[in-house]
Automatic annotation (TrEMBL):
GO terms under biological process: riboflavin biosynthetic process
Record's protein name: 6,7-dimethyl-8-ribityllumazine synthase
Function: Catalyzes the formation of 6,7-dimethyl-8-ribityllumazine by condensation of 5-amino-6-(D-ribitylamino)uracil with 3,4-dihydroxy-2-butanone 4-phosphate. This is the penultimate step in the biosynthesis of riboflavin.
Gene name tied to this protein: ribH
Tagged with keyword Ligase: no
Pathway given in the UniProt record: Cofactor biosynthesis; riboflavin biosynthesis; riboflavin from 2-hydroxy-3-oxobutyl phosphate and 5-amino-6-(D-ribitylamino)uracil: step 1/2
Active site per UniProt: H97
């Protein structure tokens, strides 16, 4: 697993949180779907690798990254959900309102996390080109979906 975040075993080799009973929601933006599908695969496989039960991982799609905040809120407000992972990709060179979308989703996800007092993870790529996105979605720079999943698990063990 190529990732620039410390893996969980490096992070705390003695106390890896038992996540077999934790429930995760993964909210996936449909824009740039070749990228976001790869992010989803990384996040899903990493959760399973660290012990999440497949039936405890719920997937929901939203049309674009702008909608991740509301989709994330709909998931976070469900009591049984322990952590939410939001995955998207906004490509600067192809998106005139790049800054509006990125600022809105970053602030929106932060608000949801604080409102519901749960980890709501910002797994949104904001590269200049599609190649840079692919490099970070299972390519030469690893998979940010893996990192988003690891971040969720680390926060649950906080
Ligand atoms: C409209 C738009 C554009 C131009 N680019 C992207 C993008 O690169 N990545 C992304 O996730 N979403 C994009 N969107 C869609 C917006 O996120 C949103 O779905 C629409 O503005 C409708 O609210």
């Amino acid at each position: 697993m190529a990732t620039s975040l410390k893996s969980l075993s490096e992070h705390s080799s003695k106390n890896i949180l038992d996540i077999s009973n934790k429930k995760f929601a993964i909210v996936v933006s449909e824009w740039n779907e070749d990228v976001t599908e790869a992010l989803y695969s990384g996040a899903y496989q990493t959760l399973v690798q660290y012990g999440a039960a497949k039936e405890n991982i719920i997937r929901k799609n939203v049309p674009g990254s702008f909608e991740l905040s509301l989709g994330g809120q709909w998931m976070a407000q469900q009591e049984e959900i322990d952590a939410v992972i939001c995955l998207g990709c906004v490509i600067q060179g192809e998106t005139k309102h790049f800054d509006f979308i990125c600022d809105a989703v970053a602030q929106g996800i932060t608000n949801v996390s604080l409102k519901y007092n749960k980890p709501v993870i910002f797994g949104v790529l904001t590269p200049n080109t599609q190649q840079q996105a692919l490099d970070r979605a299972g390519g030469k720079h690893g998979n940010k979906g893996d990192e988003a999943a690891i971040t969720a698990i680390k926060m649950l063990g906080f």
